[in-house]
Amino acid sequence: MRYSALQILKNGLTGNKGWKPVWRDPEPKKSYEVVIIGGGGHGLSTAYYLAKNYGVRNIAVLEKGYIGGGNVGRNTTIVRANYLLDGNLEFYSHSLKLWENLEAELNYNVMLSQRGCLLLAHDDGQFDDLARRGNANLATGDDAVLMRREDVRNFVPYLNFDDARFPIRGGLLQRTGGTARHDAVAWGYARGADMQGVDLIQNCEVTGFKIEGGKVLGVETLRGYIGAGKVGMSVAGRTSQVAEMAGMRLPIESHVLQAFVTEAVKPVVDTVISFGMGHFYISQSDKGGLVFGGDIDAYNSYAQRGNLPMVEHVAEAGMALMPMIGKARMLRSWGGIMDMSMDGAPIIDKTPVDGLFLNGGWCYGGFKATPAAGEAFAHLMATGNKAEFASKFNLNRFETGHLLDDEGTGARPNKH
Amino acid sequence: MRITCPYCEERDSREFEYLGSAKLLERPEGDAVADFHDYVYLRENPTGENAELWQHVLGCSAWLHVLRNVTTHEILDVKLASDVKEGKA
User: Fold this and answer.
1) How far apart are CA A20 and CA A41, in angstroms?
2) Which residues in chain B are contacts of A341 at CB distance < 8 A?
3) Is the CB of residue A349 less than 8 Å from the CB of residue A393?
């Protein structure tokens, strides 16, 4: 069913009885041309673009839980394109362009809100860094506005400008950044893929690969063996485990990242703000909750929950930046497992196994990448070549020395 | 998490800094590039038990070899990293 204002009116007048389930719940077939492991944002968008842009029919997405139940439904929903290095710049720039057209593309309201994304600086060195970053963004064709202290004060007057340790020196605003409704992104891509005949198979955990003569032939799952011409791994946080079943060791550690939401309050934060000291970022959801997060807990973890020291750190950072946040009561906190790569950048590449492809290592930047990562991964799987806007996310870049270390912290995943 | 330092007894994990996998104790012999690539960049990244290096930065500064369950965050065993390294040599 194509959604439209007319449909809403018609169903509104007839007791909303005309809405149908948005995707099918098919039994797995014996084999597929392409199998994508992981029904998260990236896996679903990969399937969508494989069907739409490359005419691949006969695709299955295998999800061990349910659609939208992984990291795509557990993030802080921020969309932006304010990276620094070549490789990241053109990729996130392309992704933001796809975001801007996503609702028309999917005929689905992903509630993209380009409310701006502001990075703050607290000393001269940081301010110079932001100027450099802004120039890199402008040169890529993206938006960047360098704001002096008084400009920032006019834009977000409720911040603490005179904190003794971290006074606000200025900021870099990207007016095209913002937020999107994360669940709707998963549902929109799932619906779009399903409408093109992609089988979305839930409760179907992959337990092994069938590899013969260096070529992948299919996957073992809890719902039986499924043959495949090509297999793509798109499994956020669990990439090391899935790749290990194919005999690979990866430049990835898994860490837990916590996020928090307060009770709903009246509209107050109408943009996305990132504190430049410590790692703290905040926005306000359409329901009114203040949504914020900080750093990863900084040790390997597969527990989908963090520990109290980081909760305390995030609360301290929030209070330093925006003292009024102390009046709000924290409603929920949760943790998601991140593929932390050794340079902070992702991997979209072939693997040493013929027909097996890898999309992973997204650290905590995977949500904003959802459209472009899917398109790039689909391009790679369909054509065997890397997309122009995603040509540097190589699996072997650690051997060749072509690292994409945007933060310049070295091979320390807990420092990215 | 609380970590029992061999010198300082049980302490809050906030006193410790995490470095990464204890495989970092096994620096390759020789200068083969492939060996160093594996050493610096590749990780086992297991679920369950993981051998790790932590430093007691706000205590005695000792480097510790910590066996920890990364699925439950339970600390299973703590030794001095130097003891572990010498035991292997």
Assistant:
1) 22
2) none
3) yes
